[in-house]
Amino acid sequence: MSDLHARHRKVLPDWLALYYEDPLEITHGEGRHVWDAEGNKYLDFFGGILTTMTAHALPEVTKAVSEQAGRIIHSSTLYLNRPMVDLAERIAHLSGIPDARVFFTTSGTEANDTALLLATTHRRSNTVLAMRNSYHGRSFSAVGITGNRGWSPTSLSPLQTLYVHGGVRGRGPFAALSDAEFIEACVADLKDLLGHTRPPAALIAEPIQGVGGFTSPPDGLYAAFRDVLNDHGILWIADEVQTGWGRTGEHFWGWQAHGRSGPPDIVTFAKGIGNGMSVGGVIARSEIMNCLDANSISTFGGTQVTMAAGLANLSYLLEHDLQGNARRVGGLLIERLRAVAAQDPGVREVRGRGLMIGVELTKPGTDQADPDRAAAVLEAARSDGLLIGKGGGHDTSALRVAPPLSLTVAEAEEGAAILEGALRSTQ
Question: 0.85 exceeded by the pTM?
Answer without folding.
Answer: yes
